[in-house]
Amino acid sequence: MATSLLRPQDLLRPSADSTVRGTYFIQTWGCQMNEEDSEQMGLYLEQLGFRPSSGLEEAHVVLLNTCSVRKKPEDKAFSLLGELVPLKRRRPEMVIGVCGCMAQIRADEIKQRAPHVDFVVGTAQISEIPGLVEEAFQKRKFAKRLALPERKGAVVTDIPQRKVDRQTKLKAFVPIQYGCDKFCTYCIVPATRGRERSRATQDILAEVQMLVERGTREVTLLGQTVNSYGKNLAEGRVPFSQLLWRLSEIEGLRRIRYTSPYPRDFKSDLIETIRDCPAVMEHVHLPLQSGNNEMLQAMKRVYTQESFREIVHQLRAAVPGIGLTTDIIVGFPGESEEQFEETLAFVEEIEFDGAYMFIYSPRPGTPAADLPQLPYPVKQARLSRLAAAQDEISCRHNSEQAGKILEVLVEGRSPKDRTMAKGYSRDFRMVHFLAPDDLEDRTGRLAAVRAERGFRWGVQGQFLDWLE
Ligand code: 5AD
Ligand code: SF4
């Protein structure tokens, strides 16, 4: 069988040889999946004997882990590549690699615009990085690795080693599914990450078990359409809700989150699991994208305003007080003022607790990029209106928490104000409170905090007691 159950001997470890060969710097843009990949890249480099550098200037190996979901992160990556030109001139031995989504789809352009890049490696081949770095030190010949695995109707075997042998992490991201089969007309992800592939359940369970043994208390399961997890597995179909239940049996794992589910696949078994499974948090990030049915259809999102509303009603009926957040795109090609206003009205009706709102960014190669585009100022004005409406709702919802006792997973001091402690509630509100004296001894534990005031960013409260 092609499963790849993690065993301790498979773990990625820093090189046993204590000689340090040099330093590395990884610049990451984009989603949590990229953050996660970057962490793994770092481990590969540590295995080769490299250690993190304090800055770009002195690093021996520089990796750019790129994002293509909108134009801006692509521009930033090209701009950083420009900044690397004088550094590479000064220190020709520096190795520069470009990884991630932009590497996957723009390898030739990168080579042409940035000839000082040593290698380009796509999203499914990051395990090639150690070999590419070694090669670059030796022969200085441009290399690229861009294969995307076919799904082949079986388990994913292209995840050779997963990181786990790291310092304690209170909250960890765990990819459970790669790629996407939805092909929304605005989205580049199916091109950059390939077809949907689920990781074997045993691998996920083993990884989370190890993370928990190393001190992790919260995991966030990652996938582009995370709730369609579990198709085409050698062990047979494993519904996402079942994976959640199995993970919840891991002793010491306090919290399970996941992002992002796809509305059409949000079924009653998942709603029941959120209601009944204590480790599964009462928060759902459910991307809406648009509140207008014609726009949804043009985006090839296969649900409607009505069916989305129905899921929200079911969720709120089953789990009162559940936190709901979303993603919305404004200014999709052809979006009329009325259609935008329907989205605005829907957002005001649903009252999400928070939303990531984006101006539509044409992605070359996607169907929507070929349609006539709206003027940028129109898109910008729509974003401002929507954001103002959502800010008011977020702020009001957070203020309505006042008086409630929240269960907070305490992460430590707030970086902005060291007298304050910071954590998240079960329904995913950021909570700040005056740090208790024993904060340092208790960081990573659950605390009861009485909410006092709400802001756009979250809730300020008063520490009551440690819950464990
Ligand atoms: N333009 C703007 N936003 C986009 N997203 C995806 N593709 C685009 C695009 N071309 C947004 C969607 C998605 C989130 C991760 O990014 O809202 O849910
Ligand atoms: Fe992109 Fe749509 Fe897949 Fe999400 S579901 S990754 S928006 S194609």
- What's the total number of strands? 19
Shape estimate: globular
Helix residue percentage: 25-40%
How much of the polypeptide forms β-strand, as a percent range? Answer: 15-25%
Give the secondary structure arrangement, pairings included.
Elements: E1 22-28, H1 32-47, E2 50-52, E3 61-66, H2 71-90, E4 95-99, H3 100-105, H4 107-113, E5 119-121, H5 129-139, E6 143-145, E7 171-175, E8 177-178, H6 189-193, E9 197-198, H7 201-213, E10 218-222, H8 240-248, E11 255-259, H9 268-276, E12 283-285, H10 293-298, H11 305-318, E13 323-330, H12 337-350, E14 354-359, H13 376-399, E15 405-413, E16 420-425, E17 430-434, H14 439-442, E18 446-454, E19 458-466
Parallel strand pairs: 1-2, 1-3, 3-4, 4-5, 5-6, 7-10, 10-11, 12-13, 13-14, 17-19
Antiparallel strand pairs: 8-9, 15-16, 15-18, 16-17, 18-19
This protein binds 5'-deoxyadenosine and iron/sulfur cluster.
The site of 5'-deoxyadenosine (5AD) has 12 residues, from strand 13.
Explain how this protein is built:
This protein is α/β, with parallel strands linked by helices and 468 residues long. The chain is built from 14 helices and 19 strands. It has helices at 32-47, 71-90, 100-105, 107-113, 129-139, 189-193, 201-213, 240-248, 268-276, 293-298, 305-318, 337-350, 376-399, 439-442; strands spanning 22-28, 50-52, 61-66, 95-99, 119-121, 143-145, 171-175, 177-178, 197-198, 218-222, 255-259, 283-285, 323-330, 354-359, 405-413, 420-425, 430-434, 446-454, 458-466. The strands form five sheets. Strands 2-1-3-4-5-6 form a six-stranded parallel β-sheet, with helices on both faces. The radius of gyration is 23 Å and the shape is globular. The chain starts with 21 loop residues before the first strand and ends with a strand. It binds 5'-deoxyadenosine (5AD) and iron/sulfur cluster. The site of iron/sulfur cluster has 10 residues, from helix 6.
